[in-house]
Design goal:
heterodimer; A: about 400 residues; alpha/beta; Rossmann fold; Coagulation Factor XIII, Chain A, domain 1; 2 domains; six-stranded mixed sheet; about 35% strand; elongated; B: about 325 residues; mainly alpha; globular
Chain lengths: ~400, ~325
């Protein structure tokens, strides 16, 4: 419904000109060269997006894909080269926490200044002042100059001001990636409360998990163009597929006693697959080649997600499997009867090593596979609970 | 944790925002060239509280952690006054002919300090606040305006000194300011604010694209100082310059501003050959008209260029 539209981006393009000289002399002395030194590129290319009230829109894409530029255009900080942006309601942009903080002013002075930058009147700030200080938990330091704050205190105070601005539209750019874990939880709780209150949020983030959890719609940008605009799981899957090219990192080792070859992922019946269902059977196998006999060896495997976080890892030592001395080629296979990880892209790291000491051979991200679950439940584990209400 | 109702209730203030809440509005809508000034003026008025806070920040930051603080902004013109009084007044002998020479030069020095401060701080206001401009949106005009506001606060202190000087000279000579002339310095202030803000807007946006502006302006201010009858009296200029060049010389708006301050705060000069004899009121009114037009024009230029500030900084 058009009447519910809060942000409308209509056919917006943004061109940046990169100039390498910026003084009068340089321009006068070398007018021709100056022309040649101009470089243009389109940060956004005919982007159109409508955002309805109460929705949370996630913007994802690689660095330089135009996410932040789009956010700045919506916020009115940049003007589009062509096209236009329409917006309704009060807006707060958390493009950078504490952007308005001046290091020489005290915490109290900065709260008032920053609050008025974000659109609060003095009276409103007076009213919220205690709860701002309370939220930031920096009561003893409020009259200290901000330059003496620890970075954590600085961020807490900035965020505390920002969440009291009470906007109808909130633009968030990566600011949630700072601070310690309790603070991040606090931020996420606050954002969830904003969602609950029916506010509109546009979020730029690199954390695909966050996107899946928080957004009800995701726009995937690539080189300034909208590639996908739709369900978070679709966009996230598409983004992961685009990222799935393997960048094997082989551990340089001068011990070439054992070599790993042919890493493969198969389903339960041994058919090689790159896309499997969450919770189904899965096998990972690889060949180990020993040109000379080796007595002391063990084989391991690890599964990581796209961000490199370890999901699971094991080896023959941990599993208390005794290995015969090896000479020639052996195949190591890890069979998982069920593999209950949630939907996403996963990578396989494999290694052979002695019982203790440096690896013989290790390949990071030797193979990859995707899991599909069809479930939108958040979390890293794929569980299928039955819900009973009695 | 703040009480939940703090976040869920809507704010009663920000009147200008609330009326717009129900309609989709163009962000950075291209303004019509002729009517855009009014739109921006309304915007600036809506943000007047932020304007005050920014000006306060300028002042606080300038003298933070210094023991003497605001005294510093008085010290420079006072030292200047002392030097000019000694060198020009005593060594070169101007003080022997011009009555109450100290008051005479301080009339000019006070307004000149205000004017040059407006120009130099406005010029760098956008560049120095790059961090804010790239992250938050509000009318960019606020930065040069806040610089002007901060300069005006500094001027108040100098005005106090000027009043004291006029009083001391009044006791000494028996010549007191004519209350009927009070409109002179008031109109002159209007000229400085209008003209200074207009020039400040132009210089601030120029400095974003060409950083040379901030260095150039230092030289221009120095030249302009000597082209303004602050430490010498205008009668000498009339005697030396050919007629047409003298008329051109008088087109300098700061000359008229200085005359206006001298007329009120330096009554000792009345009827002497050292005061300006032209029609100061007429000149002030003309300057207000011209400066208003210039301010309008400067704002339009500023508005045209401000869309690219965030990417140029």
């Amino acid at each position: 419904m058009a009447s519910d539209t809060v942000i409308r981006v209509v056919d917006v393009s943004k061109r940046f000109v990169i100039r390498k000289d910026n003084s009068l002399k340089e321009r006068l002395v070398n007018p021709g060269r100056s022309r040649r030194h101009r470089e243009e590129f389109w940060a956004l290319d005919h982007v159109s997006i409508d955002v309805q009230a109460g929705h949370t829109l996630g913007l994802i894409g690689h660095n330089g894909s135009g996410k932040s530029t789009l956010l700045k255009l919506i916020g009115g900080i940049l003007t589009p080269t062509t096209g236009y942006v329409e917006r309704r309601g009060r807006l707060a942009a958390l493009l950078e926490l504490g952007a308005g903080f001046h290091p020489d002013l005290t915490g109290r002075e900065n709260v008032y200044l920053n609050a008025s930058i974000l659109g609060l009147t003095r009276k409103q700030t007076d009213k919220y002042f205690d709860s701002i200080v309370d939220f930031a938990a920096i009561d003893p330091f409020i009259d200290t100059q901000v330059k003496f704050y620890s970075s954590g205190m600085y961020i807490r105070l900035a965020f505390a001001v920002a969440v009291h601005v009470d906007p109808e539209v909130l633009l968030v750019d990566e600011v949630l990636a700072v601070g310690d874990e309790p603070f991040q939880r606090k931020c996420l709780d606050k954002i969830k409360q904003f969602q609950h209150d029916g506010r509109t949020i546009v979020l730029v983030t690199h954390s695909l998990e966050q996107v899946r959890q928080m957004c009800d719609r995701v726009v995937l940008l690539e080189a300034g163009k909208v590639v996908i605009d739709g369900e978070p799981s679709d966009a996230v899957r598409h983004f992961r597929e685009a990222n799935s090219e393997l960048d094997h990192v082989e551990q340089a080792s001068n011990r070439h006693d054992l070599i790993i070859e042919r890493v493969r992922v198969t389903d339960g019946s041994g058919v090689p697959k790159s896309i499997l269902d969450s919770g189904c059977a899965l096998s990972i196998s690889y060949d180990v080649v020993a040109e000379l006999p080796v007595d002391d060896w063990a084989a391991g495997v690890a599964i990581t997600d796209g961000s490199g976080m370890l999901m699971y890892g094991t080896n023959t030592v941990l599993q208390r499997v005794d290995l015969e001395p090896i000479h020639g080629t052996r195949t190591v296979r890890f069979d998982f009867d069920e593999f209950p990880l949630s939907e996403g892209q996963y990578f396989v790291t494999v290694a052979v090593h002695p019982y203790a000491g440096v690896d013989y051979h290790r390949i990071e991200r030797a193979a990859s596979f995707q899991l599909r679950s069809g479930s939108t439940d958040p979390g890293v584990v794929h569980l299928t609970p039955k819900i009973d209400i009695s | 944790m703040p009480a939940v109702e703090n976040l869920t209730q809507t704010h009663p203030g920000l009147a200008g925002f609330d009326e717009a809440d129900h309609a989709l509005r163009r962000v950075n809508a291209p303004q019509r060239f002729w009517t855009g000034f009014g739109t921006t003026a309304r915007d600036v008025w809506r943000y007047r509280e932020l304007l005050g806070n920014l000006a306060r920040k300028e002042l606080k930051v300038k003298y933070k952690d210094s023991v003497l603080g605001f005294v510093w902004s008085l010290l420079l013109p006072l030292v200047q006054l002392g030097v000019y009084w000694l060198v020009m007044g005593r060594f070169l002998g101007a003080g022997r002919t011009v009555p109450s020479y100290g008051v005479f030069i301080f009339c000019g020095l006070a307004v000149w300090t205000l004017f040059s401060e407006i120009l130099s701080t406005s010029t760098t206001s956008i560049v120095y606040n790059a961090g804010l401009i790239k992250k938050v949106y509000f009318p960019r005009e606020l930065f040069p305006l806040a610089a002007t506001g901060a300069a005006l606060v500094n001027f108040l202190f100098q005005l106090v000194i000027l009043v004291i000087a006029t009083t001391v000279a009044g006791v000494g000579t028996g010549h007191w300011p004519d209350p009927a002339m009070i409109a002179m310095p008031v109109l002159a202030m209007v000229v400085i604010v209008l003209f200074g803000t207009a020039a400040g807007l132009l210089l601030a946006s120029a400095n974003v694209y060409l950083r040379d502006t901030q260095h150039l302006i230092g030289i221009v201010i120095m030249l302009w100082f000597w082209l303004t009858p602050i430490i010498y009296y205008v009668g000498r200029v009339r005697d030396v310059l050919p007629r047409w060049l003298y008329d051109l010389y008088l087109l300098n708006p700061m000359a008229t501003v200085v005359f206006a301050f001298q007329k009120f705060f330096w009554p000792q000069g009345k009827g002497t050959p050292y005061e300006f004899t032209g029609d100061v009121y007429f000149r002030l009114v003309m300057l207000i008209a011209v400066s208003s037009a210039l301010l309008w024009f400067a704002q339009r230029v500023f508005a045209r260029s401000q869309g690219n500030f965030a990417q140029e900084l």
